[in-house]
Amino acid sequence: MRGDVYDARGTVYDKSRYKTGKGQNSFAPSEVIDLCDSD
Q1: Which domain of life is it from (predicted)?
Q2: What is the pLDDT of residues 1-39, one digit of tens each?
């Protein structure tokens, strides 16, 4: 991994968008794990 974040569906999230806060493509680490667990 080169600093990129992948969700359960394989979508790549830029590090600049990977941050806690409001935003369509903003996910907290726990939320990314949640997507993997619930899918």
Answers
A1: Eukaryota
A2: 455 566 666 666 555 555 544 455 555 555 555 555 554
Asked if residue 7 lies in contact with residue 33, where contact means CB atoms within 8 angstroms, the answer is no
The three-state secondary structure class of 18 is coil
pTM comes to: 0.17
- State how far Cα 6 lies from the chain centre: 6
Question: For residues 21 and 39, what is the distance between their CA atoms, to the nearest angstrom?
Answer: 23
d(CA 19, CA 25) in angstroms, rounded, equals 9
